[in-house]
Amino acid sequence: MINAFSCMLDIRASLGECPLWSVAEQALYWVDINAPSLNRFDPLRGDNVAMPMPESIGSYALRKGGGFVVALRSGLWLCDARGKLQEKVVAAPYDPAIYRFNDGRCDPQGRFVVGTMNEKRDSDSAALYRLDNDFTLTRLFGNMTISNGLAWSPDGGTMYHADTPARTVRAFDYDAATGAPSRGRTFAHWDGDTERPDGGATDSAGHYWCALYGDGKLVQLAPDGKLVALHPLPAMCPTMCAFGGADLRTLYVTTARQKRGEAELARFPHTGGIFSMRVDVPGIPESHFQG
């Protein structure tokens, strides 16, 4: 039996995003893109430590040698475990007045894959990139407005990717040796105005879990794209999910409070918090950036 979601951290973030579980630390990292900050939440202690960033932080990954690689508006940076920026390794491959980095995570081989978003939302001019371990940045493909939903199947052979305004998640064959996606095809599509796929994650059975921003639900899809279940949350704008806990069977979800009306916030007062529920199938440990 799957439990309902409950609020683990009533922090009321403006744009909570990118939860990532550290197995070594038994802690959940996440960002508030608008604060902007990278955060470390200890579920056992119940405390959250915010590490302020100088500009919008779209995503990040843990590094093998410690610290993080972070995707800031100005480019990709290395920072230490306390969130202090150390070195910009790649300048932003776009005009920061129009674009910023958004959803990103490491592939199973430890390369950081990260997309961008067009903040004006007036064209499909955003793109997906791969940062290799030598800090070479390669453009993978474009033709999207808001890059989201990155995840890999348990065997690493399939990459999932969403373009939120298109309400579509695509699946790609993924070459482990080269880090190149190919043979893109529609995995899931929604037609409702509020059914906008945001961040995603896969479990060890190969199910793809995706937050539907504006619809107040997480959708659980089988490897063939068929609907397994819908999981409602007490917040209308879930942004991304991550499997954590000692057995990777606690599903954490970040949410957004920005631009939500008073009536909605009165109905869902914990909007902007981090929610969790226990699930039957464990997730997959996150890869660390090898650079």
List the helices and strands and how they pair.
Layout: E1 6-9, E2 16-22, E3 27-32, E4 37-42, E5 47-52, E6 57-62, E7 68-72, E8 75-79, E9 85-91, E10 99-106, E11 112-118, E12 126-131, E13 137-144, E14 147-152, E15 158-163, E16 168-175, E17 180-189, E18 196-202, E19 208-213, E20 217-221, E21 227-232, E22 238-244, E23 250-255, H1 262-267, E24 274-278
Antiparallel strand pairs: 1-24, 2-3, 3-4, 4-5, 6-7, 7-8, 8-9, 10-11, 11-12, 12-13, 14-15, 15-16, 16-17, 18-19, 19-20, 20-21, 22-23, 23-24
What does this structure look like?
2% of the residues lie in helices and 53% in strands. The strands form six sheets. Strands 1-24-23-22 form a four-stranded antiparallel beta sheet, with no helix packed on it. Strands 2-3-4-5 form a four-stranded antiparallel beta sheet, with no helix packed on it. A four-stranded antiparallel beta sheet has the order 6-7-8-9, with no helix packed on it. The protein has one helix at 262-267; strands at 6-9, 16-22, 27-32, 37-42, 47-52, 57-62, 68-72, 75-79, 85-91, 99-106, 112-118, 126-131, 137-144, 147-152, 158-163, 168-175, 180-189, 196-202, 208-213, 217-221, 227-232, 238-244, 250-255, 274-278. The mean pLDDT is 97. A hairpin with a 5-residue loop joins strand 6 (57-62) and strand 7 (68-72).
**Class by SSE composition:** mainly beta
Number of helices: 1
H-E string = EEEEEEEEEEEEEEEEEEEEEEEHE
CATH class: Mainly Beta
State the distance separating the first and last CA atoms: 41 Å
Quantity of strands, as a count: 24
Name the shape in a single word.
globular
Share of helix among residues? under 10%
Q: What portion of residues belong to β-strands?
A: over 45%
CATH topology: Neuraminidase
In CATH, the homologous superfamily goes by the name TolB, C-terminal domain
Calculate Rg over CA atoms.
17 Å
Strand order of the largest sheet: 1-24-23-22
CATH architecture: 6 Propeller
Largest sheet: 4 strands, antiparallel
Give average pLDDT, whole number.
97
Poorly predicted runs: none
